[in-house]
Amino acid sequence: MNVTGPTPYVEFAGPGPLTGPPTAPLTWGQRAIWEAIVRTAPDDRYFNFGRVLKVPGSRTVAEVCAALAALMARHGALRTRMSGALRTTMSDAFRATPAEPYQRLAEKGRLPVVVTTEDPDRVLDELAARPFDYFGEWPVRVALVLDGDRVAHVVLVFCHLAADGLGAEVALRDLRMFLLRGPGVRRPAASQPLDLAHWQAGPEGRRAAETAAAHWEREYRRIPPTMFSSPSGSPAEPPIWRALLRSPALELAVRSVAAEHAASTSTVLLTAVTELVGRFTGHETCAVLPISANRFRRDTTDIVATMSQEGLFTLDRREASFTGLLRAAGPAALRAYRSAYHDPADRNRITASVSAERGEPIHPYCCFNDMRFADPGPARCDPAEITAALARTSVTWPMSQDKLNCRFCVHLTTEGVSLTADTRYLSRPDMERCLLELEALVVEAALR
Amino acid sequence: MIKERLAELVAESSDGAVTADEVLAATVPLSALGVTSISMLRLIDAIESEFGVEFDLSDDGMGLLDDFDRLSAHLASTASR
After folding, report:
1. A48: which of A2, A326, A411, B54 lies 20 to 30 Å off by Cα?
2. The CATH number of the domain where B26 resides is what?
3. Which residue of A has its CA nearest to B45?
4. Please, what is the Cα angle at A189 between A186 and A192, to 5 degrees?
5. Is the CB of residue A404 less than 8 Å from the CB of residue A41?
6. Residue A242 forms beta bridges with which residues?
7. What phi and psi, each to the nearest 5 degrees, are found at residue A205?
């Protein structure tokens, strides 16, 4: 990266002395991500993600650093690192049985800031390219991109233990406000991960956790042990690949089907993906793990934290038509979203006990992540327009890597629908076929 | 009174996509009014905290949630217990 001048630091401090200890157990969301990180290391940079904020008005480096200090003060997640009694270096964290880590909030610190003139998207990729030192480093990396002597863009790369996509949006919104209205602007206090961890461990949190756990246990007793269990016979090198379907026709068709069936576009796609999983694996009962935002409680809507977790969505296909599946999918999706707000310790316990009971490991290894921030929403579309749009469909292969803690991951983004799969269980030609059949299924339902 | 309060909770949960008046006047299920699944989850959480009840999300329980009149009657009967 073309770095301009010496690295400035943002000196930050929390809003005041804490009322309780600066440590707490991990929140459910942190623990879920931590387990995924440990399973994915050394490819755990996979979980890093970032945002580019176009700086409003004309701001100097010092002004942007002041806004960043206000952001760090406001959101405890950005001052929180992992801690563990026995833990001193990164490699220890990945040894067989690391001591149970916990979170530690720092009252103050210094955040290094890169100042550069490079393209912001490239800067983002560079900042996200290496894994975080979860125990030593602040969970956000920042670069300021200059245009002359003013800051044009702020690039933020988040450690997934500190924020998920929606949490990052909240941080960006607050940073923008500090830039516009000054770092001293008064705001109602923000919810904090330490408080959330205490709530989750308290009686209300345990009640929510038990409801969720009951769903996991009931469904784990009846679903196939894993969705993609047969070798594909044609593994690729490296084994993990991502295929990206860009399909304006699918976008229109999804909106149309959602309008027709009073469903969300997300539920339509989740149902279609589940049906495709069934077709490619032969399972009648299919289990998919949708990532749920878990921001439905009033005190978590605007928290900068990792709230998103996997829920358990199950659908019995039998001979049901796609319309029949959609009807069943509404309540099934709600049950899945509720099960997403769970304590991973409960889920681990249930996984172990049901796996022992059934005599084989139970895990769907099949997930679905709707990462769109702006859902275009249900809307009836002209069938002729949908058919015409089919000519603009494309499939590309934007990524490959060695390790992933899943076998079949569908991501919905504004770019399209991507499928990241383990080619040892689903070959690259089948991945492409799966995406195109997904398009065909929904388009056909829309044109019916 | 429960009906009015419930309609307010639906409006809050939907971030204003549906108003309390629309809920009270509606003759169709909440889902047909445009209450999305995330709004429905917020509503479930709000009702559970405010009325001290717990929803079972079986198909039956879901039918109850989607039917505003049945839901109000159910909460009224729970509250008077």
Report:
1. A2
2. 1.10.1200
3. A297
4. 145
5. no
6. A399, A420
7. -65, -40
